[in-house]
Specification:
By secondary structure, this protein is mainly alpha-helical. The chain is about 45% helix and about 5% strand.
Length: about 350
C-alpha cells in the first residue's frame, strides 16, 4: 500500500512539476515581445489612467501578446504609479521592458507644439509655418533676419556663419542655414529667436562631420550651402544629387552660367508650382538668376532653400563627369548629356513620348 501511495505521489509530483514548468513557459512566452520591430510608437496616457485601464490601448497598438498575462505581470510585480504623459514603446519590448518604460517619470508637456520644416523649403515657407503654428507673425521672422545685431551675435556663436550672410543683396540672411527637420517647442509662445537657435544648433551638429572638408574647400561654406540648395531643388532623386552637383561644377569651371530655373523662380519670389515666368523675369539680371549670361561662372548670392544633408554631401563630394546638361522626365528619371544638341534631342524625345514634366 505504501509503495502504491509513493508511486501515486511521484506521479502527482511529476504532473505538478510539468504543470509548473509549462505555466512558467507559457507565462514567459505571453509576456515576451510581440515582434523584433523596434519602431517606436507614441502612446498617450491620460490623467486617471492606470496599468489596467490601458490594457486595450496596448493591445490595439500590438504592444502586448496577452491582456490576461499582462495583468498577471502587473499583479505580481506592482510597478510604480503610472503617470499621465507621452511614451514611446515598440513591439520589440517584452512586458517587463514595456512596464519599465511606463513607470519612468514623464516630462510630457500638453502645451508643446511640433513643427515640421521639410527639406527644400525656402524662408517664405518657414516664416509661414512659424506664423501658422506659433504666436509670431511672418513679419517677426523677416524683421529678425534684418537685425544686424542679432546676425552678429549668431556669427559669433556658430562656426559656419560668416559675414557673407550680411550681403545686402541677400533676400533672407539665414536662408539655407536652418536645418530642415521636425522640432518640438514648449508652447506657441516660443520666440523666433528660440526657433532659429534650435535649427542653427542642429545645422551645426549635422555639419560637424564635414567641417574639415568645408573649411578646406576652395569654396566658402556659404558657397557650398548655396550650391547644395540648388542641387536640392534641381535633383529628381537623391541618387542623382552627386552627379547633378558635378554638372554645376563643370559649368562653374568653364565659366558658364548655371542656367538653373529654380534660381530664377527664387529671384522673383515665385514658387515653381505657382505659374510660369514671364520672359522679362527669365532675362532679368540680379544676384540670383543664374539663367542670365552676366551670372557666368557665378553662384547666387545665397542659398535658395534649406538643403538636406545628402545635398550638402553632394556639394562637398560631387561625382566627376563630363556632363554639362541634365533633365528629368515626369517619372523622375534623370538624363545627362555633354552637349546642348544631345540635351535638346533628349527633351524632344521626352515630349514626343509623353514623358515631359509639366506643373
Amino acid at each position: 500500500m505504501k509503495k502504491f501511495l509513493l508511486k501515486i505521489s511521484a506521479i502527482i509530483g511529476g504532473i505538478l512539476l510539468v504543470l509548473v514548468v509549462s505555466c512558467f513557459f507559457v507565462y514567459k512566452l505571453l509576456t515576451g515581445s510581440v515582434s523584433k520591430d523596434q519602431t517606436l510608437k507614441e502612446i498617450i496616457i491620460d490623467n486617471g489612467d492606470n496599468y489596467y485601464s490601458i490594457v486595450e490601448l496596448l493591445k490595439e497598438n500590438n504592444l502586448i501578446k496577452s491582456e490576461l498575462f499582462y495583468k498577471i505581470y502587473i499583479k505580481i510585480h506592482k510597478p510604480n504609479s503610472l503617470q499621465a504623459g507621452k511614451y514611446y514603446l515598440s513591439e520589440s519590448m517584452d512586458v517587463e521592458k514595456l512596464v519599465s518604460e511606463l513607470s519612468k517619470v514623464n516630462t510630457y508637456n500638453p502645451d508643446a507644439i511640433r513643427i515640421t520644416f521639410k527639406e527644400g523649403i525656402n524662408m517664405r515657407k518657414i516664416a509661414r509655418l512659424i506664423s501658422d503654428n506659433t504666436n509670431n507673425s511672418e513679419s517677426d521672422v523677416y524683421n529678425l533676419l534684418k537685425d544686424t545685431n542679432y546676425l552678429d551675435s549668431m556669427i559669433e556663436k556658430y562656426w559656419f556663419l560668416t559675414d557673407e550672410i550680411k550681403n545686402n543683396k541677400i533676400y533672407y540672411s539665414l536662408e539655407g542655414y536652418l536645418f530642415p527637420d521636425t522640432y518640438e517647442f514648449k508652447n506657441k509662445d516660443v520666440t523666433v529667436q528660440e526657433i532659429f537657435g534650435v535649427m542653427l544648433s542642429e545645422m551645426g551638429r549635422k555639419l560637424e562631420p564635414y567641417r574639415n572638408n568645408l573649411e578646406n574647400s576652395k569654396y566658402s561654406i556659404h558657397e557650398l550651402l548655396t550650391l547644395a540648395s540648388i542641387v536640392e531643388l534641381e535633383s529628381a532623386s537623391k541618387d542623382d544629387r552627386a552627379k547633378v552637383a558635378g554638372v554645376f561644377y563643370n559649368r562653374l569651371r568653364s565659366n558658364w552660367s548655371l542656367g538653373s530655373d529654380v534660381t530664377t523662380y527664387y529671384a522673383v519670389k515665385v514658387d515653381m508650382s505657382e505659374r510660369d515666368l514671364y520672359q522679362y523675369e527669365l532675362d532679368d539680371y540680379n544676384a540670383y538668376n543664374t539663367r542670365n549670361a552676366n551670372m557666368a561662372g557665378k553662384l547666387p548670392v545665397s542659398p535658395i532653400c534649406s538643403p538636406s544633408l545628402s545635398s550638402v554631401g553632394a556639394a562637398i563630394n560631387p561625382e566627376e563627369t563630363e556632363y554639362y546638361y541634365f533633365v528629368a522626365d515626369k517619372y523622375k528619371k534623370t538624363y545627362f548629356s555633354k552637349t546642348y544638341s544631345e540635351h535638346a534631342e533628349i527633351i524632344a524625345k521626352l515630349k514626343a513620348e509623353g514623358l515631359w514634366y509639366t506643373y
